Amino acid sequence: MFGTSFGNSASSGGAFAPSDIAGLKLWLDADAANVNTEAAADFNGSNQYLSSASTYFNKGNESFSFGGWVYADALTGNPIGKWNATGDNRSYAVVLSGAGKFQFFVSSNGTYAAGVTGQFVETTSVYTTGNWYYIACVHDADNNEIKISVSNSSFDTTNWSNGVYNSSTEEFSIGLSAGVYFNGRVDLAFFYDKALSQSEVTALYNSGNATAYSSLSAAQKTDLVSWWSLSETSGTRYDQVITSANNLTDNGSVGWAAGILDEPVVNDSPVTTWINKGEGTRNATQSTAINQPIWKSSGFGTNSKPYLDFDGTNSFLSLSTDYSKLPNHTVFAVYQIDATINSSTLQCVIGDLGGGAAATGSMAVVFRNGLFETNFGDTSVTELRKTQRQTTIDTVSGTTYITTLEYTSGNSLQTVLRNNSTLSLPTALGTATSIGGEAYEMRVGQWGTDGYYPLDGKVSEILIYNTVLTTSEVESVNDYLNTKYAAYSPPGAFMTATGGNDFNGTIVGDYKYHSFTSGTGTFEVTSLGSDPTYGSSVEYLVVAGGGGGGTLLGAGGGAGGLLTATNATVSATSYTTTVGGGGAGATVARTQGGAGSNSTFYGVTAIGGGGGGANGSGQQDGVSGGSGGGAVSSGTPGAGTAGQGNEGGAGSGTGVLGQGGGGGAGAVGGDATSTNGGDGGVGLQNSITGTALYYAGGGGGSAYAPSGGIAGEGGEGGGGDGGTAAGSNADANTGGGGGGSDRDAVTPAGGNGGSGIVIVRYKFQ
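-> structure tokens emitted (765 positions)
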């Protein structure tokens, strides 16, 4: 049995493949080359068609060919064409006549006159509903002919030397032409810029077996303009030759039904076969259309891999009994659960189980009543051993999981890893210690023969070995899968660091942060991680000390400058931090407040906040800084530093008694009125500690109490309130500005600016 966790395998990084280990009976990989579909576009004959306005299909007196596999539900309708019956926009079309014959029409001038010699060619044979026919329509400009072949018949040919109308604005359409909707299916439609020969048609017909785009030879792709699989269940039908120019737009919600060929999927295709890349011969299959999961070309997990989408009701794939009752086995399943996992959840990723009194199974990845569960059993329900592990709180909707399940014959317990962590010991029900009883069908997306627990989720890869892998082998497979899907972080994936007041960091979720609240410190990156996104990346918040408030009709101090980054790349080295102190509030009458000190980290410097102005000679201006201090009377507000803060607020003019608020990191300081002080500018909100807090708010301006003035409030983010006497101090470690003080018999002090702070955060798990 394997242990609790594994490091990085030496064979990972692309050199290792699961098939390097013997005993790989089943390997289902959702890459496009390994998944097939048999779907075709299905038209209702009343309002559904596919169309393209591309000019690639505008043809004149030149050779071209078009067609595809056609299955008619009614002997009328026009499956393919560029032909408008109500205007002079006729160009070419294939028509299914009511007499059961296919006709290829062309027009040289956009019009149609009944009886014009050579304007159409009709098949000799009569065809019926309910059968697939391969239609090839050819305009041969070199030999002045139009011709049609049905299911590799010899061409029916008519002379035509007038070319084709190439100025038609009618769209190229499948399912509609000449105003008549087609009732039936079309599959593997094509368009060539050449006249196909009889031998070329024969090769594409492939003895009635059809040809997939992936099987076309280089010669068969010569002059191929477009090839549509038409296997999508809805929406755009994608051209496999040109990236997007000739895609077909869905009109009327065209449906889908079984097609002519089991071929490689395109995006949004229903899955008929998931091809086994392992040593076994059994593929995972589903022939019933309503039960087919849908293949998606991307979107699974961090690396956006392809996957199969199961609807939680009908869809599943069958593996028959070929992988049931393996006495020794190791299973790997890569999946996501889309629905919420709770106490009533019943979902299965893969498993085998029989119903009735002889209900037994050999392996399963199941969520049952909110618990993760694996199963094996002997010959009866009472002996069925259910291994229940871990509650649903550990299974998050939309999260990628790699579950590893291992069972050794004769052992009473299975061992299970999920995302490289061993799940807790099981609560076992029943008495079985071996796998007995009858072999039952194994399914992907359901649990066994009775359709238990349909999966509402996504599956991207499954592996089953008929042996118990060694610890190093399990490690190699898990590393291979995790490199591909990035489901979890291998050991050492994230950085480690020390420093600050919380020397080893404060944990919030999957992040740690280190706080520096005074003086000089060191943030030391002790090791970098290997995770490509977070292994060398930190976030930081650097706030300088705020400015102090002025005295005697004093203005509010400006907030300290604020700098932040969310993706700073670091090295395994030490980084010095400096936390700026707050500027002193003025204590001498008619004096500006002191400036805050700078804070530094990672080569950046947050500038200290400017002091607030005072009603003294040469002291009325606010001081510039990270954010500027407010002004008094007719002084000039202090300027803020671009990218760090804002300017202070203005005083209210000569001889009046309200003073300006200090600037904040998020807004300018408030202007004073003739009686009231201006509010400090608001700071900025930041959630680096896991809690949304404001930093760097400006200090409020003072007001003269005897005249009924109201002092300005400090800005959110630690700013001190202005006073009608003393100004309030700003909050520590916010970088807030101090409040301005008003005059009194004894000169009251302006509020002190708040000290700054440096916070560094990084992902640690």
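Confidence is low (pLDDT under 50) at residues 1-14.
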